[in-house]
Structures are given as structure tokens and as C-alpha cells.
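tool_call: predict_structure(chain=1)
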Amino acid sequence: MTTEATSHYDHLDQMSVTDLLMNINNEDKTVPLAVERTIPQISALVSQIVKRMRLGGRLIYIGAGTSGRLGVVDASECPPTYGVPHDLVIGLMAGGDGAIRKAVEFAEDDAEQAWKDIAPYHPDKNDTVIGIAASGRTPYVIGGLNEARKAGLLTGCIVCNAGSDVAQAAEFPVEVVVGPEFVTGSTRMKAGTAQKLVLNMISTSVMIQLGRVKGNKMVDMMLTNIKLQDRAAKMVMSEIGVDRQQAETLLKQFGNVRGAIDGYSQMKN
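tool_result:
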């Protein structure tokens, strides 16, 4: 299990700050290459997710600790970025929402709890469950994947060891083997970075495939702050050639960039 293997470095407590930072960075540089090797696995999983989401399915992440938190982050960022409902991408973690801020002891060891956490969402065969576990041996994740698979849901995972129990429980495993951590066993480091990169790749490519991006623009994003309102106005100005005042008027009328562009086109016709 490479995530638990001894660090390539020793005497960390005797290193200077600069040496610590340089060595951590040297380890971090290896992560994108490890992710690159898994692109065929990610592609296979994304293709299956998209098929089901086009039929009304949802994407559900389950995990514990850092892995669970990363899933919650990815899920929580989809609605403001792509304008999707808050229950389309769901992040669940061992110990519940309270565990996002404070670890809940032994929560990850309950193999039955993940499916109980999923149950209130009334899962069906068009849904996908992705288990996130750096070690690949988290009971919470294994149990959730096993039950999801029995119920006919699509199952995938993101793990950082090869041949793990979590990978065996998933139909479409993504195994990003990043090797030993700088601080031995601290999987919030390289493993966490790898998981975040893969989650970005999955959710972004899924949303693009579902038509939530036009060109390279987030045309369905929620206009929830001044920065996003400014970005939206610039998008509208660029896309249809109106001035700032008219762009802002269109955004107020139609609610988002896509609506403003489509509404303007209809008015012109």
C-alpha cells in the first residue's frame, strides 16, 4: 500500500523552511503525471455518468476524512458554476456534515452508514455513486459501493493504491497511484491533490457534455456576487455585441448569461 509507505525523505524536523517547501513541491510535481496515466479510466467513468445523467440521474460522492470533504467541495461548487439543482451532484461523508469541520471518530468504519446516508435521496438505476478513498480500504465507502451496485446504480471510485477493496467494489475504478507521501501516511497531501484533480476532471467534463458550457463560458452560472455579475456582463457583451448597460439589462431580465443571449436573439428575430 504505497500511500502508507515510508516517505522518500527523512529528518523532516531538521530541514529548513525552504528545503521543506522545495521538497514538498518536488513531490507534488509527480501528481499530475500519475493522474495522466488514469485518463482512460476517468474517460470510461465519465462516459457512463453522462449517459445516466441525460436520463435524469444524479452524481453522488461518498467518502471519509479528506476524501469525503473533497467530494463535498466538488458537489457544492456545481450549482453556482453550472446553474444545476443542488441535488444533482451530492456530496456525502462519514460522520455527516459536522465532520466537514471536525473529525468524527470511527465514522468511516461503519460499512452500513453510507447507504443509509444515500437512502433519503431515493436512489435509482440512473444515479452514479463514486467512492473516494485514498487508501482504498475505507469500510464506509466499500459498504456504500456494494449496496449501490446491488441496487443497480453505476459505481466508480477514486483511490490512490492499486488493487484495493474499494476498486474491486466499483465497476469503474480510477486508481491514481501517487506513491509515498512527504509526511508518511499523510494522504491529505499528494493523494488529496490527485483526488481533487480527478474530481475537477469528472464534474467539469460531465457538465460540458450535458451542455452547461457554451464555447468556453459558464453561461448557466449563478450571479451571486459582484464579481460574477461583472463576468456575466462581459460574456454577454462579447457574445452578442451589446454595450454594458444593455448587457446588464438583459441579465436582469433573463437571470443568467444563456438566457440573456437566447432572449436577445429571439427579440432580434
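agent: Residues 155 and 248 are 43 Å apart (CA to CA). Proceeding to next step.
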